[in-house]
Amino acid sequence: MQSPSGIKPGHMQPACSLGRRDRPMIATVAGPSDCGVHTTILLPASWTSLSQALNSETGKAHVALLYIPTEPPVLWATSADSGQQKGSSDPAFKVVGAPIKQVLRLTSCNERPSAALGYSPSTKKGAPAPIVAVGFEGNPAKTVAETQSVGIYFVYLGALNPIITRVTLLVVPRGGTAKVAVPIFVATTDPAPAYNCPGLTYFTFSASFLASRSSALTAAGFSTATVVGAQFDFNGTPVDTIDRLAVVAAVGLILA
User: What pLDDT is stored for residue 86 in this prediction?
Assistant: First the structure.
């Protein structure tokens, strides 16, 4: 996919030549000296150019933009549930909303980040496997035809294999109220996803794909159904140390 303003990844561009953005983005920039210093910065959509961001980080106006990754629009999770017993504090709240600034600044998954940056699905011996169930409350709500995948933002992958054992999409048929659950990934039968860390790992779907996985609706019925949530089932193998557990920072519904 081509970057905003026609800039392709890896192409050099003067720092002040890009205009206003309609949503935040990440830029990796090189420092003004020959020392090879690089900085990753978050650019708010309200800024009218890159120069303010670059100058605030480096103190020099002639910093060159190296890379602007672009992503499709995302409806971030508006609720999350780990399935814990009622009355206990649910740590899954950490995956609600867009990734925070500290998460976006991460460039490697080699070291486990602070617990404040995400949720680690874990389980005790004999307990059910951990889950993260999220809700998507868009205004207006998004149909299957208006979406293309669900993405889970990992900042650490841990050591368990597979990390995710199942992903289930939750939809409500047009004119209905009851949720229809459709498995869009099952680790025992589907190819393993290409895990991206740090970043979003995608689980794609379409109306015809959902119809092939569930007899609840036809492809046409799924196309107009509203996507209301998703559930991720994780590997429930008990671990000795927390370093073996993955860390999830956010979950999003990727729009078409």
Answer: 56
DSSP state of 20: -
> Read out DSSP for 194-256?
---SSEEEEEE--HHHHHHH-SSS-HHHHHTSEEEEEEEEE-----SSGGGS-EEEEEEEEE-
Which parts of 175-243 fold into alpha helices (H)?
207-213, 219-223
SS3 175: coil
Whether the predicted pLDDT of 216 surpasses 50: yes
Lowest mean pLDDT among 24-38, 50-64, 81-95: 24-38
212 and 190 inside one domain: yes
19 pLDDT above the threshold of 60? no
Model confidence band, residue 195 (pLDDT cutoffs 50, 70, 90): very high
CB 234 within 8 A of CB 118: no
Kindly state the tokens that stand for 189: 């039968």
Separation in Å, CA 48 to CA 32, 63, 110: 22, 17, 35
Domain count, the chain: 2
Q: What domain range is 160 assigned to?
A: 74-255
Do 158 and 123 fall within a single domain?
yes
Structure tokens at 183: 């498995």
Q: Count CB neighbours of 155 within 10 A.
A: 24
Q: Are residues 89 and 212 in the same domain?
A: yes
